[in-house]
Amino acid sequence: MPFADELIGDHTAKALINAIEATAPASPLPSLRTAAGDLATRTLRERSDLLRDALLADLPGDYAVFTRTIRAAQHGSLPFNGWLIWPVTSAIATKAIADGSTEAFDDAMEMMAELTSRLTSEFAIRLLLDHDLDRALAIVRTWTGSPDEHVRRLASEGTRPFLPWAKRVPAILARPRETLPVVNALYRDEGEYVRRSVANHLNDLSRQQPDLVVETATAWLADPDENTPRLVRHSLRTLVKKGDPGALALMGFAPATVEVVGPALSSAEIPFGGELAFTATVVNTGTEPATLAIDYVVHHLKATGKQSGKTFKLTTATLAPGQKLELSRRHSFREITTRRYHPGAHAVELQVNGVRYGRSDFTLLAAR
Length: 368
Fold this sequence. Notes:
Strand 4 (290-301) and strand 5 (307-319) form a beta hairpin. Strands 2-8-7-4-5 form a 5-stranded mixed β-sheet. Strands 1-3-6 form a 3-stranded antiparallel β-sheet, with no helix packed on it. The chain is globular, with a radius of gyration of 25 Å. It is of the alpha+beta class. The protein has helices at residues 10-23, 30-36, 44-58, 63-74, 85-99, 102-115, 125-131, 133-143, 149-157, 170-174, 180-186, 192-205, 210-222, 228-235, 237-242, 245-250; strands spanning 258-265, 269-270, 275-284, 290-301, 307-319, 324-332, 344-352, 355-364.
C-alpha cells in the first residue's frame, strides 16, 4: 500500500495530461508537464495544489471556457477518475471564486456533485464553503435527498469541521450548529458509506462542542433505526475515551464503584520498537451490576520533554457485585509513520468509565 503522499504522483499527472490533451489538443500543457516531475518532495496536499495551479495556468480563459474543457474530459474516452479529481475540482472552485458570479458559484457546486463519485470532491468544496458558507450550505442541504450515495456522503464529509488533509473552514468552526441539518437528515441513511461519514462528522464536532454532540446523539437515540446505536457509538468514541460524563452516561457507562489493581508492568524498561506488557484487575465493589468502559492511557514523551496522553480501547464489560475481571495487554512501540517515539520517561494508567487509576512509569530505551 502506498504512503499517503504517493497517492498523487507522476502517474496522476500523466493521466490528467492525457485526458485534457484528448479534449484540448491545441493546448501543449507545459505547466502540467513540468509539475509531473516536481511532485516527489511534496506532501499530498501540496501535490494536489501544484497540479491545480498547473492546470489553471495551462487552461487560461474564463470560468465557462475552463469548465467546458473539464466537462469534455469528464465525458471523454480516457479515464478521468481517481486522485486527479482533487486538483481538478480544486481548480474548478478556484475559477468560480475568481469569477465572482453566483452563476459560476452554483455551477461549481454542481460540478462538485457531478465529480464526487469519481473519487471525492470533499477537499475542493472547502474552498466554496469558505467563500460563501450560507450559499454553499443551502445547496449542500439539497444533496441530502440525492439518489446518489456519493453525493449524500459529500454533503456530510465535505462539511466536516476537521476533515483530514483538507483546509479548515473558519465559519464552520465558529458556527458549529450550521451543519447539524445535514447530519440530522442523514443519520438514518440507508448507506453505511454515508452513515460512517455522519459519525465522523459528529465526532469532529465533539472536539470543540461536546455538549452539542451529546445533545444531538441523545435526539438520534430517541428516534432510532436498527443502525443508530452503532452510529452513535462511533460518533461518541472520542468523548468516551476522554471520559466525558454525558457521552459515557448515554452509552450506559454510569459512575461505578470499583477497585483497580495495576497496571502491573512486565518490565520497567521497554526496548525501542518493542512492546509494553501489563496486567490489571478490576473488581466491582458496589451493590449493583456495573457496566464498564475500560481503556488505558499511554503518556508518551514528546520532543519538548513533556508527556502527552493517548487513550486506547481495552474492553467493555458488565460485572456483577463482587465480580473480578482480569486484564492483560501488550502495547507495541513499533515504528509507524503516524507517530514518532522519543526515548525516555513514559507512563501508562487505566481508565474506567472516565476515571483514571494506577499510573505506572516505564522507560522507553533509545534505538540501538
